[in-house]
Automatic annotation (TrEMBL):
Alphabetical list of NCBIfam families matching this protein: ATPase_P-type
Protein name: P-type Zn(2+) transporter
Any matching Pfam family: Hydrolase
The keyword Transmembrane appears for this protein: yes
Cellular component GO terms held in the UniProt record: membrane
Transmembrane intervals: 122-142, 154-179
Subcellular location: Membrane
Organism expressing this protein natively: Aeromonas cavernicola
Amino acid sequence: LRIRPAGPDAGQSELREEVAADALRPGDIIEIAPGARLPADARLLDALGAFDESALTGESIPVERRAGDKVAAGSLAADRVVRLEVVSEPGNNAIDRILHLIEEAETQRAPIERFIDRFSRWYTPAMMLIALLVVMVPPLAFGQSWDEWVYRGLALLLIGCPCALVISTPAAVTSALAAATRQGALIKGGAALERLAHIDTVAFDKTGTLTLGKPQLTELVSLTGQPASELLASAAAIELGSHHPLARAVVAAATEQGLAP
């Protein structure tokens, strides 16, 4: 999924060292810089922190977490350096569970796949038997040429071979599941994929799914009577180093108006 860093800065007994993500164990204290992603499920130690969880939930705006809240692996530290305590074992964090769901989805077969399997169990032996009869009966019963009827029997066997039918269905389902996963949609198996053909209504409950998830400043109201340009310039100067989407919107608006510090 490419949302887990190779190694965060981990601090143990106030000594910071860079370690690989798979070396983290429950109880380790890690420090994540703004813009970095959590390599493991962790509990927030700082009083407050904002995390971009769009890679996991689709929520475009960073979610505020307080001390003691659990933060899933793959979340992005939005606006400040945060300290967290690792709570998940290697291979058992949110990212690994999603990967497991993807692997499990690929094993769940669609009804059409199961039907093709049952059909091929009878169809294949039947075609082989018919081809054998085509080869054997005319020469033995009617004195026809062996060369001609062996050729016809092989032609019938080639035409009636179910390889394309048997292979094409699972290949198409697997390709569709993989394509959906690359686009950020996790479909739980071929059965669910097949049911999509009968869906006529779709409900979206997450921001960022249909929108870009990039807020823009549309209006500025000064409550103190300070000129809007001065207020915007001051706000942009404060938010200049922040990675929070709302902070970036303020800085972008100031830049467009030529007010950026």
